[in-house]
Design goal:
Elements: H1 8-21, E1 28-31, E2 37-40, E3 48-49, H2 59-64, E4 70-71, E5 76-78, E6 109-110, E7 116-126, E8 129-130, E9 134-139, H3 145-155, E10 164-166, E11 172-174, E12 184-191, H4 199-202, E13 216-224, E14 230-239, E15 245-252, E16 257-260, E17 263-268, E18 274-279, E19 286-289, E20 301-303, E21 337-342, E22 347-352, E23 357-362, E24 364-367, E25 375-378, E26 381-383, E27 392-395, H5 416-450
Antiparallel strand pairs: 1-2, 2-5, 3-4, 6-7, 7-8, 7-9, 7-12, 10-11, 13-14, 14-15, 15-17, 16-19, 17-18, 19-20, 21-22, 22-23, 24-27, 25-26
Length: 451
């Protein structure tokens, strides 16, 4: 019998009708997804022998459409190879077939200039929200798949170069940008004004890889409140797809409550250098309450973040070679005073068990107009008198005040030459008095002897 159809589906329908008309009323012919024909010999039909399709001068076709010498009742036979080839970007849209071998059944209309035109609409969701439908015109025999790929890229705002492409099996692969905000779903194609077009079912999309957010880098610092308690402050950074901008968010792992400076952005230039470090919640510092609301304890904490020099690389940077964030802090935990020093200016410096050194106080000094007028009170202490004048308070090494020598023994404040002279006079007086006593003793002794 002779086939006069135009499509592969027409060929399938004709082939099945001929088998049924020639002794196999229950026979069916199906077109597989890869373009192969399968003949099913129903159980009640007789043996089918030497089933094949032949086309004059078409050797490759004749070699494909062979179904074996016999098809037993209840069995099937499939053609040796496919008839349909995978779609390519250069294929004309109006000439495409679906997996059943049917054309897409477009309804073209004259645009008044002799061109046969129809409109295709693209819909779907981006980041969970419905997109604004994108409509483009398809010209019969002219517009190819490249236009459809370009429109899909436009509709879902895809920035990566390989976002929409056709694979080796003729399937359209749509890959959105990184992040849940760029997640693509429910892609739908339809021909405007044609309820009978099968483009929607012929080009059907399914999700094989769900959207995920980009990796988040974080850095944790230990901060201290006014009571020396520790708190772990974490800054988490998430990159915006397609931009050198990172969103950051501060967090604490306890009952603390952040009151300001919780979120912000960091921007870098193309060389990875810092452009800006901003707070997006109106804060200028990260401030938090060290304990739960309504609980007494340490004072509120405010932390200044130093991102580095704008335009420099001495702080936050964006380099592809590193995925780590380093930080340093200047806080300390609770410390116990283990020693102290007093310098020449009277400043008392304490050394603590947490390896910190702090200036705790400064000693004051009293200056008198007439120090000689002070009244000795004993135990190396003196009292103010009307002759000494009123004490003028100040600090060591300021004004007329002297210096403080911490840990030094006090030097003698007497006139050594005068004291030595007095010592010699006292010695000679003692010697003279001793001579008088000695002479008196001798006189008395003589008197006793005479008696």
């Amino acid at each position: 019998m002779r086939f006069d159809g135009t499509t592969i589906q027409d060929l399938r329908d004709w082939f099945q009708a001929e088998l049924r008309a020639n002794g196999a009323p229950g026979a069916t012919v199906t077109l597989d997804a890869d373009g192969a024909f399968t003949v099913n010999n129903a159980g009640g039909d007789p043996l089918m022998e030497d089933v094949k399709l032949l086309a004059g001068g078409r050797v490759s076709f004749n070699q494909v459409m062979l179904f074996g010498n016999q098809i037993q009742p209840g069995n099937t036979a499939t053609s040796a190879a496919t008839l349909l080839s995978p779609a390519e970007e250069t294929d004309v849209i109006s000439e495409l077939y679906n997996s059943d071998g049917k054309k897409l059944n477009f309804q073209f209309e004259d645009d008044g200039a002799g061109n046969m035109i129809t409109s295709i609409q693209i819909g779907g969701t981006l980041g969970g929200e419905a997109i604004t439908p994108v409509v483009f015109e398809v010209e019969e025999g002219s517009t190819d798949l490249t236009e459809l790929l370009s429109r899909l890229t436009q509709a879902f705002r895809i920035s990566n170069a390989d976002g929409v492409e056709i694979d080796s099996n003729g399937r359209i692969d749509v890959q959105g940008d990184v992040g849940l905000a760029s997640g693509i779903d429910n892609i739908a194609l339809r021909e405007e004004g044609n309820l009978f077009s099968n483009i929607g079912t012929s080009i059907d999309f399914s999700v094989i890889d769900e959207a995920q957010d980009a990796a988040t880098f974080s850095v944790t610092n230990t901060v201290y409140d006014s009571l020396g308690n520790t708190h772990n402050l974490t800054l988490a950074f998430t990159k915006r797809t397609g931009f050198n901008v990172w969103d950051w968010k501060a967090g604490l792992d306890g009952d603390e409550e952040i009151t300001a400076g919780e979120t912000g952005t960091v921007t870098f230039d193309e060389a990875g250098r810092l452009v800006s470090f901003l707070y997006t919640d109106g804060g200028g510092q990260v401030s938090f309450r060290p304990q739960a609301q309504g609980t007494s304890g340490a004072e509120p904490v405010s932390i200044s973040i130093d991102p580095g020099t704008i335009g420099g690389v001495n702080g936050l940077t964006q380099y592809n070679s590193s995925d780590q964030i380093q930080s340093t802090g200047d806080g300390y935990g609770v410390g116990r005073l283990i020693d102290f020093d007093i310098d020449r200016d009277g400043v008392i410096t304490g050394r603590f068990s947490n390896d910190t050194v702090l200036n705790m106080a400064r000693m004051s000094m009293a200056v008198f107009n007439n120090p000689s007028g002070l009244v000795r009170s004993g135990n190396n202490t003196y009292s103010v008198s009307g002759n000494s004048g009123t004490a003028v308070m100040g600090f060591a090494n300021e004004g007329n005040a002297g210096l403080i020598n911490s840990g030094a023994l006090e030097a003698s404040n007497v006139d050594l030459s005068e004291q030595f002279t007095r010592l010699v006079v006292a010695q000679r007086a003692f010697q003279s008095n001793a001579r008088v006593i000695s002479t008196s003793d001798e006189v008395l002794q003589e008197l006793v002897n005479i008696v």
